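Lecture 7 notes: from sequence to structure.
We start with the chain below.
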Amino acid sequence: MTTTIEDTGLADLRTVYAVRDAVIGRRPDLATALTIDGERPRVFLRLAGGAAVVLVRSPSSPTGWSLTSPAVHGTVTPGLGPVAMADAMISLVGLVAAPLHRVA
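Predicted structure tokens for the same chain:
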């Protein structure tokens, strides 16, 4: 059995939705800030002040996914699985949001 691009894309999309559900399960207050881009696929989590955290497919990452934010230099490699990715995303939100709360 061979894996096609369509199979990989569908698996990535399922992962993105599972991460979204895991984030909402842990932090329901972030539900309205989450946006899914099914074209790439990736998850955007937009914060106050224009900051964002993005989970995106990254073939060069050990887990195949990376988290990034313009507010934080570099990328973060989340653990395997939607729950680990959601936890990493929420942690990065904390790092990005902390300076925003101090300024506001």
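Points to note: Residues 99-104 have pLDDT under 50 and may be disordered. The beta strands are 34-37, 42-46, 52-57, 65-69, 72-76.
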